[in-house]
Each structure stands twice: as C-alpha cells, then as structure tokens.
Amino acid sequence: MIWLTWRQFRAQAFFGLGALLVIAAFLTYLGADVRDGYDAYRATCDAGGDCARARSQFESAHKNPLLFVAAGLGLVPAVIGTFWGAPLIARELEAGTHRLVWNQSVTRRRWLLTKVLVVGLAAVLFTGAAAALLTWAAHPFDEVAENRFGTVEFGARNLVPIGYAALAFTFGTISGLLLRRTLPAMAVTLVGFIAFQFFFPNVVRGDLMPPRTAQLPMTAQAINGAKNLGSIAGGAVIDGVRIPNAPGAWIADTSPLRTANGAALDEATFGDCLDGPPKTGADGTFGDTAVCLAGHDLHVEVRYHPGSRYWAFQGLETAIYLVLSALLTVFGLWRIQRRTG
What we know:
The protein is mainly α. It has helices at 2-46, 51-74, 76-95, 98-102, 108-145, 151-156, 160-179, 182-204, 220-224, 229-234, 267-274, 287-294, 310-338; strands at 212-217, 250-254, 299-305. A three-stranded antiparallel β-sheet has the order 1-3-2, with no helix packed on it.
C-alpha cells in the first residue's frame, strides 16, 4: 500500500522537490543579503556612528522583502491542502478506482490511513524545510526588529507552519472524502483554510494565555509616537508604547488615555491642549500639544504578552493544529468505514 501510494504521488513529490530547491536558492541569497546589511549596521554602531539611523536603514531595507516572502510561504499550507490533500481521495472516488483496492485484502481504513500518513509526511517535511530556511534567512532582522509576534511573521517561521501544513492537508483530504468531487473539494479547502488562517491569529491566538497588564505614563515623547491627534484624543495609543524590561513584547491592546484617577481623556477637560490652532513642532510632530497633555499626568493601561512567551505560543498553537489534524483523520477513518459503494 505504501508503494502504491508513492507511485500515485511521485509526480507531485518531484514537483515539490523542485519547488523547494528554488525556494532554498532564493532564501539563501536573501539570507546572505540580510546578513550583509546586519554586519554594516553593527559596524556603524561599533564605530560610534549614528546607530539609530543605521538600525532604521537596516530595518527599512529588509522589512518589506521579508514580509512579502513570509506572506507567500504562509500560503504554502493552503496550497498543499488544495493540490495534495483535496484530490487524494476525491479523485479516486470520482473515478471509481477505489473499488479495485477495496476488493483486495486492503481494508478501507488502512487504505485511507496509509495515504494520509505518506503524503501528509511529505507535506509536513516540505513546509517545515521552507519555514526553517525562512527562519534562518530572517534571523538577524528578527533580532533587531523584535517583531516575531507579527501575524504574518509568526505564522511563517519555526514550528507553526508545520502544524498549518498538517491541518491543511488533512482538511483537504477529508473534504475530498465527504464531497467526492475533486474541484469542489479543492475550492472548499483553499477558501476554508485561508479563512482559518485569518481567524485563528486574530481571534484565538491572543487568548491562548492570559496577558499581563502594565500601566505606562504617557510622556510627551510617547504621545508624539501616536499617529495623529485623533488617536490621542479618543482611541488607543499604540504607536510609541514600549513595555519596560520586555523586549519583543506583543501588545494585545491598550486603553484610551486616562488621568491619574482613571478617568478617560475628554475634550471638555483638556480643550486647552486639543483645541485652537495646530501645535506642530519643527520636526512635524505635535510637540506643544504633547507637552500640554503630558502635563496632566496621563497614562495608558496595556495588555501584553512578553517576548519570552514566543516559544510557548509556538508550541501551543502547533499542538492545537496537530490535534485538530488527528481528529479530522479519526473522523475520516470512521466515515470511510460507514460509507457504502
């Protein structure tokens, strides 16, 4: 059964191997370029130059390329589920070739389980190798930018892509088993798993562990870090917030600006700062306004996850995906045993 599965899958396997070699060549080049930029940044700092400017230039030069690559590789599990998982069973049921195997000594469950394990292992190895290459290429940038919790970055590096691949492949396989048509199963897998990739990080991930809370005073410099006066007056101030002693923290949310007694900022109380002509400094920031607001002893309450939780989140989320994949497989084994014809 393993040999038969390999013969049926070998064309996709060779194509995947070729794609992985192309990805490896590109990420090797990209990783070398990132390391050259990092060395130049460190050389400027070690020589006593403008370290802040060198850091900004390093981040600006490599942020978008790494983000685009991470977004592209983030779609790999969905593509694997669509083109490897969905046709795996649906094509056989559609063509009727499954009857030849079922009439032999191979049981239905063994037939399904062998296919899932053999092709699923290939999917996990392919995605894991691509994620490892990207993790290596982006490592110097991640150390400097301290944004490993970013939605795109988190889902494309280290362990999580492995869980994504297992779940996407299993979801595609079971979709094919239930729908019994290749094209509908592929469409359901692609749309459904991409929707899941948006849903889980934005709705579930932040609640996997209870966040910590910090109360941060809003100095003039911190207020100037907000995007505009509108966000200062009525919304959460996120830009410019730094959690003390917690590099790389993931800020879950922040409260609106509050006074020392916990009251929210309002224009009636602070109209002297917010009203009147624009108070713009020479550098384009709201300098005078920020100084005026900071004089009212304002603060924000921040809910955050410290950077030290990164690997805990990676492990926990990967485990959830693997468990969901196992449950789908068990359901498929139950369903195929009850199916007639």
